[in-house]
Model the fold of this input.
Amino acid sequence: MVDPIHQRDREYPNQLTAAERDRIESAIRAGRENGWSVEHTFHHHLDRGIMLASSRTWHRIAADLAVAPRVTRSRRDRVMPVVTATAPGQAWSWDITDLKSPFARVAFKQYVITDIYSRFRIASAVEHTENTSAAVNLFTAAIAEHGAPRVVHSDNGPTMRSDALNTLFANHGIDVSNSRPYVSNDNPFSEASFSAMKRHPFYPKFFESLESAQAFDTEYTNWHNASHYHSGIAHFTPQQVHDGTWRSVWNNRNASLQRYYEAHPERFRTRPRLPRPPTTVGINHLVKAA
Done:
């Protein structure tokens, strides 16, 4: 008598393919590294238009992987990232944000790489979806144009921690820094950049098409780099701090300020001092370790 085949080992027409199961397993493992539950990971992909299988199937596969639904953070996940820069080109921060479309729960994805010292937008792009290929292409072009930074910082999203992107960084000798799960302050430069953009007077409520979102991205990036007097860098533009021309601009500003002081000293308590961009900027570099 032939031994019966266990139900889980039988083949069914609606059974997942090996490739589909591999994708779900990879997503579950990546989600766990981010401190996400299986349910969170499932809906994270669903919100991005990626439906690989039912939620119950994800949980069954997670059980096979011995991934508990209850999230437990590893000691490595709790390590506070520290990144510093004393000049442009040393440290980049990057992230992806949603640009709303006219349709509910549908958004275009804007990728932005920022030099944390100068606040200069190194590169940006807008795509229909969040995907690793777009990120790899963006960084490949950015490194070719600007050279490789010492470190790249990002949050813990699946795209940020993808093998393809980290291989690119390793090939260029770039260190990788990641935020702790659920700690938004660990990526302040990208968060602040997106917040400022979305509070801009000309930021639309939604974008009619991918092309309109891309056009806005180009226009805003040009304005931000060349015309935005950024408060975090003593009200110079990111372009000025990035290329070093802020020094001549500072000299002109200071000359005007001192002339005004000489003409009206009674309007000042002491001789005014014009601020300069900070010599060192960073992420968590001023926070004392617990």
